[in-house]
Amino acid sequence: MTITIYHNPDCGTSRNTLAMIRQSGEEPIIIEYLKTPPTREKLQSLIAAMGFSPRDLLREKGTPYAELGLADPAWTDEQLMDQMMAHPILINRPIVETPKGVKLCRPSEAVLDILPNPHIGRFVKEDGDVVIG
After folding, report:
1. C-alpha to C-alpha distance for 120 and 49, rounded to whole angstroms
2. Which of 82, 99, 100 lies closest to 91 in space, CA to CA?
3. Domain boundaries, the chain
4. Cβ contacts of residue 103 below 8 Å, gap of 6+?
5. How many whole angstroms from its chain centre is CA 27?
6. Which of 3, 5, 6, 11 is catalytic?
7. Is the pTM of this model over 0.85?
């Protein structure tokens, strides 16, 4: 069974999601998407699998979103994809792909919906919040 996480190790939500995957008994393929961004085709397939539009996957905080003016509804999906390819930090994270589906795991416990074994027991997030799988 293959689980893939598009991960940013500097993101607490991403670290918590990775820890929950591991606590479920799986060792995922970890793609640090800022170092190794997905291809345009892969990103499009992930977006489609989640039922999202490119705009739904844009991250605003800590990105060039505002300076690029990406809030303007005139941007087309193709143009937004171009910006995510040019600036991978605009891709919201973590995205997890499992045989049960693809999900943007915000909050991190959203990963439980697509894990083969979602019964991870007690889990404490980095911020002290308790999650019961």
Report:
1. 25
2. 82
3. 4-132
4. 50, 95, 96, 110, 111, 113, 114
5. 17
6. 11
7. yes
How is domain 4-132 classified at the CATH fold level?
Glutaredoxin (3.40.30)
Is 105 a known active-site residue? no
Residues with Cβ within 8 Å of residue 74, at least 6 apart in sequence: none
Cα of 22 vs its chain's centroid, Å: 16
Maximum Cα–Cα distance across the chain: 46
Question: Which parts of the chain sit beneath pLDDT 50?
Answer: none
Angle 40-50/77-86 helices, nearest 10 degrees? 120
Nearest Cα to Cα of residue 46 among 90, 95, 115: 95
Burial call 69-78: b when 16+ CB within 10 Å, e when fewer:
ebeeeebeee
Burial label for 19, CB within 10 Å (0-12, 13-18, 19+), is middle
pLDDT for res 133: 61
Which tokens go with 112? 């439980």
* Cβ-contact 20, 28 below 8 angstroms: no
Q: What is the pLDDT of residue 26?
A: 96
